Amino acid sequence: MNLTNCTRVTEFILFRLPSVLGMEHLIFSCVLLLYLLCLMGNGLIIMMVIVDRHLRKPMYFFLSNLSFIDIGHTTSFIPKLLVNYLSANNSICFYCCITQLYFYFFFGVTEFFIITLISLDRYVAICHPLRYATIMTSGVCLKLAIAAWCAGFFSILYQGVMTANLPYCTSNIINHFYCDEGPLLKIAGGDTHIIESLGFLLTVLVVMSSLLFTLISYLFILFIISTILRMPSNTRQQRAFSTCASHLIVVCILYGSVFFVYLRPNVKNSSFNVIKSVSWLNTLVAPVLNPFIYTIRNNEVKEAVWKLLERKTPGLPNILA
Which parts of the sequence belong to the G-protein coupled receptors family 1 profile domain (predicted)? Predict the structure, then answer.
């Protein structure tokens, strides 16, 4: 095909949410509910860390970063998805699609770095409790967080620019409900092998190294368990077990879905029908579960929430009593 005379597309057509006869409103309501839960759950964590000085600790600092990422990750495509579902027009402008693609992967890659930092924080807190305060200082945590955000920003910048400069002539229909790399490359003209190789390499380096570091930080779980068992306080044992178990649940959901979707040498020739189903795990399910998994059994967060409610509603303690 002669790409020199290619007329560049100005918009793409996205697939809508899976449509089941008579259940369109139910599907829309479920996605909207999950999105609102994501905003409220993660927003609550960010607000609690800012308002309550008792939560100004490394763990909650990194957790607030993770919450901000989850909000940004879902907001990069869910509002547009819901608007398209309500309207007959499923289009998205070319530069809007590229912007959505970039921020989707920017937040996604940064999330792995932040999860790695959370695992590092938990390892130091549980295995080196006496040195924890001197190792994980506020200055060190801030520098680590900035490094994670910068690494996420620059790691996909070149790939995003290359994707934006590809010719799109044969089709403008993206076989996905948001602008993802694989479906976009499938309709692109020109040689996409370099971009595919960069994407695969990025997945291997970032995701695999993050997972490897997370597993090593837990020291194959055995060392942490032995450390926990030597703790004299039952409360400390329960808190440590709860934190480790919560983190591992997030790791299994997030890493498992990302491995399935993106750890493919030739992603543009994959089965997108299956990929679209699995994508919900890391695009919406994991961001919704994160605040609940990390905080549902966390007494410090619960106390911070009750204190905030007591300040807003003076009569609440008497009512509860």
Answer: 41-294
Residues 179/12, Cβ–Cβ less than 8 Å: yes
Whether the per-residue pLDDT at 150 is higher than 90: the answer is yes
- Specify the pLDDT at position 319: 40
Looking up tokens 């901000």 gives 68
DSSP strand pairing (11-14 vs 91-93): antiparallel
CA angle 285, 288, 292 (to 5 degrees): 125
Q: Return d(Cα 75, Cα 81) in angstroms, integer.
A: 10
Span 70-98, mean pLDDT?
87
Question: Structure tokens of 16?
Answer: 């809508």
Collapse the DSSP code of 160 into the 3-class scheme (helix H, G, I; strand E, B; otherwise coil) and give the result: helix
Going by the DSSP 8-state scheme, the letter that residue 266 receives in this structure is T
In this predicted structure, the answer to whether residue 233 has a pLDDT above a threshold of 60 is no
Task: Enter the tokens of residue 240.
Answer: 């440590």
Q: Are 105 and 198 in contact (CB under 8 A)?
A: no
**Which residue type occupies 252?**
C
